[in-house]
Design goal:
about 550 residues, alpha/beta, binds adenosine monophosphate
C-alpha cells in the first residue's frame, strides 16, 4: 500500500522561492573582484535569478544543457546556482586553479554551452576559448562599464547587461527531482578528472542534512562566511543550506589572505565560517602575531584534508572558537561525517574530548559507512581496526558522467562507493581517516598513518606545513620521511624535529628523516599534492642506504 501524502518533487527552485518569501530581507554581502563590497538581499537574489532564467530561455538552451562558471564566491555566482539549476539546466562549476589545458578538457568533456567567468580569469578564457567549440556564449561576471573592450573573446557580454531588461517574473518549471542540477569534476590528481553529476533530489536532501545541529548547524541568526569555494563541490552545499535557513551570507570574493578574511569577519559580524586547513592557517598567521581577537566568530567547519589537532586547540583554547572537523568528497556532495561530541562525552576531561574532536566524526543521517579489509571482510568498529572506507546514500555518486560506475557490490547486491580513504571507526561511530589508500606507508608489514606523522610535526611551533611520504627500503619495504616547510623566520632543525616525535608515537613509526622544503606542493583544491612531492624528491635516498 502506498502512503497518501503529497508527492512534491524536491527542486532547487523551491529553495530560492522559500528564501524569497521567508527571508527576503536577509543580507548577502560580497567582496567583489572589482574590490568593493556589494550588499543586497535574498529578495534581490531571487529576482535576478529569475531574470537569469529568462535569459537562458531566450538563448534557447534546452533542459540539461550545461552552463559553466569560472568564478569566486560572490552574489552573481549565487544567482547562477539558482537561475541555472532552477530552470532545468546544469550548473557546471569549473575550478580556475586547474591548468588551462585541463580547463579546456573539462569544458569540452562537459560540452558546456555558456561560460560565465570573473574577470580575474580572463587570461584563462583567452587561452582556452578557441579550443572550446561547444560554448555559444561567453559572459564576463561584471557590469557593462567593466567589460574589457579588446578581450579577443567573440561575442563577449557583461553578465549585468546580459540579464538586464529580462522580466523578473518566472514560473520555475516542475520536473522529476532526479533531474541533473549541477556538476563538478574531481581534483584529478591521477589521470583526467571525473565528473560527478548532482541531482535536485541529492542537492536538496544534502541541504537539509547539512543544516542539522550536529552537522553545520546553520540558522537564521548566523552570519556565514563560506571560504570554501563555490567552484568546488558547491562550497560544501552552503549556498543551498543558506537559502533553506535564511542565514546572512558573506562572500569573500578573491581576497582569501588572513588579513582580508579577518577584516571581513569583523565588519560583517561573521559567526560561522567554513574552509580547508590551509586557509585557516593563513588566518591564524595574521591574527596571532597581531594580537587580534574574534569578536563574533563562534564556530568554524574545517575539512577537505585532515585538520591538525594543533589548529583545533588554537581556535578553541586561544580564541574560544568551536572547531567542527568534517570529512567528505566531491562524490559525496560532499558531506559525509562531522565531529561533534555526544551527551555522554560532556563530562569527560578536556584532553579526552580533544582526542574525539580530532577525528573526522560521525556519519550524517543519509550516509552509511563500512570499513573492509583487503579480503573484503567488514572490520570491527573498535577504533583500532582499519580498512578501506565504503559509503552509500542518496547524495553519493552512482556513476560518473560519461564514465563508469565506481560502486562495489555487497552480498545483497547493494552498491557501495569506495572512497579511497583508509579509516577506523570506534564503537560510538566516530570515523577517523588514517590515510588515502595510496598514501599509506607499509613498514615491515605494519601500516603507518601519514596523517599522524604530519599532525605531530605541525604541532611544532616552527613548522608551517608537513607532508609524510613512504620511501622504498630494502628491509622494511617502506619507511616514512617527513617533508617540512618551516614558518618564516623559524629555525627548527632535523634533530630537534625527530626528537619531538619521541613519546608521541611508537619508536618504529618515527620518520627516518626530515627533509626541509620551501613549500609543500598543493593541488587545485588546496590539498597536499604528494605525487608532486614524490617527483620533487625523486633522487632522494634514506639515510644509511
Ligand atoms: P575532494 O573530492 O577533492 O573533496 O577530496 C576528497 C578527499 O579529501 C577525501 O577522500 C579525503 O582523502 C580527503 N579529505 C577530505 N576531508 C578530510 C578530512 N577531514 N580529513 C582527512 N582527509 C580528508
Amino acid at each position: 500500500m502506498l502512503g497518501l501524502m503529497q508527492s512534491q518533487p524536491l527542486l532547487i527552485s523551491s529553495l530560492i522561492e522559500f528564501a524569497d518569501r521567508h527571508h527576503g530581507d536577509a543580507q548577502i554581502v560580497s567582496r567583489r573582484v572589482e574590490g568593493d563590497i556589494h550588499r543586497y538581499t535574498y529578495r534581490d537574489l531571487a529576482r535576478r535569478s529569475r531574470q537569469l532564467a529568462n535569459t537562458l530561455d531566450g538563448l534557447g538552451l534546452a533542459m540539461g544543457d550545461r552552463v559553466a562558471t569560472l568564478a569566486w564566491n560572490g552574489y552573481r555566482h549565487m544567482e547562477m546556482y539558482f537561475g541555472v539549476s532552477g530552470s532545468g539546466r546544469v550548473l557546471h562549476t569549473v575550478n580556475p586553479r586547474l591548468h588551462p589545458d585541463q580547463v579546456a578538457w573539462i569544458i569540452n568533456h562537459a560540452e558546456d554551452r555558456v561560460m560565465c567567468f570573473d574577470l580575474t580569469f580572463l587570461p584563462i578564457i583567452q587561452a582556452v576559448h578557441a579550443r572550446c567549440p561547444t560554448v555559444r556564449q561567453w559572459v564576463a561576471l561584471c557590469d557593462a562599464d567593466r567589460l574589457p573592450a579588446d578581450s579577443g573573446i567573440p561575442g563577449l557580454v557583461s553578465y549585468d547587461s546580459w540579464i538586464a531588461g529580462q522580466s523578473d517574473q518566472y514560473a520555475w518549471p516542475e520536473f522529476d527531482e532526479n533531474t541533473a542540477s549541477s556538476m563538478c569534476y574531481t581534483s584529478g590528481t591521477t589521470g583526467n578528472p571525473k565528473a560527478v553529476l548532482y541531482s535536485h533530489r541529492s542537492t536538496t536532501l544534502h541541504a537539509y542534512a547539512a543544516a542539522l545541529p550536529d552537522v553545520m548547524c546553520l540558522s537564521a541568526r548566523d552570519s556565514v562566511l563560506p571560504v570554501v569555494p563555490m567552484f568546488h563541490v558547491n562550497a560544501w552545499g552552503i549556498p543551498y543550506s543558506a537559502a533553506l535557513t535564511g542565514c546572512k551570507l558573506v562572500f569573500p570574493g578573491p581576497a582569501l589572505d588572513g588579513k582580508s578574511l579577518y577584516e571581513l569577519m569583523e565588519a560583517e559580524g561573521v559567526t560561522y565560517a567554513a574552509g580547508v586547513p590551509t586557509v585557516w592557517q593563513m588566518l591564524l598567521g595574521h591574527v596571532k602575531p597581531n594580537g587580534l581577537r574574534f569578536s563574533t566568530l563562534r564556530r568554524t567547519v574545517i575539512g577537505g584534508s585532515a585538520c591538525p589537532p594543533a589548529m583545533i586547540a588554537a581556535f578553541q583554547d586561544d580564541y574560544g572558537v568551536e572547531v567542527l572537523h568534517a570529512w567528505g568528497m566531491t562524490e559525496m556532495s560532499p558531506l559525509g561525517t562531522l565531529c561533534t561530541l555526544k551527551n555522554k562525552h560532556l563530562e569527560l576531561p578536556k584532553d579526552e574530548q580533544m582526542k574525539i574532536l580530532q577525528k573526522q566524526g560521525r556519519a550524517i543521517y543519509g550516509v552509511d559507512m563500512r570499513i573492509v579489509g583487503s579480503d573484503g571482510q567488514d572490520q570491527p568498529w573498535d577504533g583500532k581496526s582499519y580498512g578501506d572506507l565504503l559509503v552509500r546514500g542518496p547524495w553519493i555518486v552512482d556513476s560518473y558522467y560519461k564514465g563508469e560506475s565506481p560502486l562495489v557490490r555487497d552480498a545483497q547486491g547493494r552498491g557501495w562507493f569506495p572512497t579511497g580513504d583508509v579509516a577506523t571507526i570506534d564503537a560510538d561511530g566516530f570515523m577517523q581517516i588514517t590515510d588515502r589508500s595510496k598514501d599509506v606507508i607499509k613498514s615491515g608489514g605494519e601500516w603507518i598513518s601519514s596523517i599522524d606523522i604530519e599532525n605531530i610535526a605541525m604541532a611544532h611551533p616552527g613548522v608551517a606545513m608537513a607532508a609524510c611520504i613512504g620511501m622504498p627500503h630494502p628491509k622494511w619495504d617502506e619507511r616514512p620521511i617527513v617533508a617540512v616547510a618551516r614558518r618564516p623566520g623559524a629555525e627548527v632543525s632535523r634533530e630537534e624535529l625527530l626528537k619531538f616525535y619521541e613519546g608521541k608515537i611508537a619508536k618504529w613509526q618515527i620518520p627516518d628523516d626530515v627533509v626541509f622544503v620551501d613549500s609543500i606542493p598543493l593541488g587545485a583544491t588546496g590539498k597536499m599534492l604528494k605525487t608532486r612531492l614524490r617527483e620533487q624528491l625523486a633522487g632522494y635516498r634514506l639515510p644509511g642506504l
